[in-house]
Specification:
The chain is of the alpha/beta class. The protein has helices spanning 29-39, 76-79, 95-105, 127-133, 158-164, 189-212, 222-228, 231-240, 274-284, 298-303, 305-316, 321-330, 341-346, 348-352, 394-400, 405-413; strands at residues 20-24, 43-48, 63-65, 71-75, 85-89, 110-113, 138-143, 216-221, 257-261, 266-270, 335-337, 356-358, 368-370. Helices cover 35% and strands 14% of the residues. It has a 6-stranded parallel sheet, sandwiched between helices. It has a 3-stranded antiparallel sheet with strand order 9-10-11, with helices on one face. A two-stranded antiparallel ribbon has the order 3-4. The two termini are 19 Å apart. InterPro entries: CoA-transferase_III_domain, CoA-Trfase_fam_III, CoA-Trfase_III_dom3_sf, CoA-Trfase_III_dom_1_sf.
């Protein structure tokens, strides 16, 4: 199928138009960072291994469906983190491949990589060597544990980082209840947060570069990010010396503030103050709860959680979810549905906000991507290119770098490019 990439010259410039990013990362944290930069208008060149490419190209099923309904070669995982990029295949273990990366660096503003600590130095492509080649370059290195410290040589994976960084100690049901024990979050939040923090760091470094001409090295670690994103729980521990435990879907300091079951599904009740509790009691048909000394104030409700929560659960179980949500929302009592993904993408608010985008793909006309949530008034996010096929833009990018067709063919004959 012909490449359906639209004519890009007609598109208005994005916020990061003119910024070129050389992306040597793979899997999720790095590609999430570079996809965000690409969505904002940066020219992102994704460097992949010949033959196999980014690991996530093979992380399926599910795969993108062809027009005939068959599985294509493109894993949904890869498609979720690599739009608006161009793919070039380069074997950096080959001296000619290393020379090619240096040539691309001369045209780049940013390089993002997530190799193990010291790996790129074996190829003469470490941060210091690249900064010597181009002093204005911003190099962002993303690893599990950072460039320093006793764990620097370890491989880092999101699941392990969620455990090591404390998140799983506060996620999941209490140990004394059925199903109790540590739980990971359902998506790779350590990877995703690290990708976003990396984006912020790159933008700050580009601002510094624009002011001074000086590039720099950004050292991002999944473990650092996971510790930072403990947020108020980390602050609570540092102030008290007491480690918080798992509360399941309940809240340590507010009652009722948890998941309850209705007659046809679950809902969230998130009462934030005593006035909201009184309104809830009216809706529940038990106004006397609001004047009961055990439940009068939030502190009382926290102390008598074991008595109040079963009473609420018994009432909410009697009616369907929408019965309660409609009344609670009308009374401005905080609440919410627990939607599966069918319901999420069918939700009128999600649709009104344009949170899915169709994109023409070389292998399918069925591609839908989750939209970028950033809404900019003057330089909106653009969906210029579908996630690339492996090496799809190799010849195009090498031509832009000044190589002749004969030089490109010579590199292909040597196995330097795919």
């Amino acid at each position: 199928m012909q490449d359906p990439t639209p004519t890009l010259a007609a598109l208005p410039p994005g916020a990061l138009s003119g910024v070129t990013v050389l992306d040597l990362s793979r899997v999720l944290a790095g590609p999430w960072c570079t996809q965000t930069l690409a969505d904002l208008g940066a020219n992102v060149i994704k460097v992949e291994r010949p033959d196999s490419g980014d690991d996530t190209r093979a992380w399926g099923p599910p795969y993108l469906k062809t027009p005939g309904g068959e599985d294509s070669s493109e894993a949904a995982y890869f498609l979720g983190a690599n739009r608006n990029k161009r793919s070039i295949t380069v074997d950096i273990a080959h001296p000619e491949g290393q020379a090619l990366i240096r040539r691309l660096v001369l045209q780049a503003d940013v390089l993002v990589e997530n190799f193990k600590v010291g790996d790129l130095a074996r190829y003469g492509l470490d941060a210091q060597a690249l900064l010597a080649l181009k002093p204005g370059l911003v190099v962002c290195s993303i690893t599990g544990f950072g460039q320093t410290g006793p764990y620097r040589d370890r491989a880092g994976y999101d699941y392990a980082i969620q455990g090591m960084g404390g998140l799983m100690s506060v996620t999941g049901e209490r140990d004394d209840l059925p199903g109790g024990g540590p739980q990971k979050v359902g998506v790779a939040v350590a990877d995703l947060f690290t990708g976003l923090y990396s984006t912020v760091a790159i933008l700050a470094a580009l601002r510094h570069r624009d002011l001074t001409g000086q590039g720099q090295v950004i050292d991002m670690a999944l473990l650092d990010t996971q510790v930072a994103m403990l947020a108020n729980l980390g602050s609570n521990y540092l102030c008290t010396g007491k480690a918080p435990g798992r509360m399941g879907n309940a809240h340590a300091n507010i009652v009722p503030y948890q998941v309850f079951e209705s007659s046809d599904g679950h809902l969230i009740l998130a009462v934030g103050n005593d006035k909201q509790f009184a309104k809830f009691c009216e809706i529940a048909g038990h106004p006397e709860w609001a004047t009961d000394p055990r439940f009068l104030r939030n502190a009382d409700r926290v102390h008598h959680r074991a008595e109040l929560v079963p009473l609420i659960a018994e009432v909410l179980r009697r009616q369907p979810r929408q019965h309660w949500l409609g009344q609670l929302e009308a009374a401005k009592v905080p609440c919410g549905a627990i939607n599966n993904l069918d319901e999420v993408f069918a939700d009128p608010q999600v649709q009104a906000r344009g949170m899915t985008v169709p994109m023409a793909h070389p292998l399918s006309d069925r591609l839908q991507v989750v939209a970028n949530p950033i809404k900019l008034s003057a330089t909106p996010v653009q969906y210029r290119r579908p996630p690339p096929l492996l090496g799809q833009h190799t010849e195009e990018l090498l031509s832009e770098a000044g190589l002749s067709p004969a030089e490109v063919q010579a590199l292909r004959d040597q196995g330097v490019i795919g």
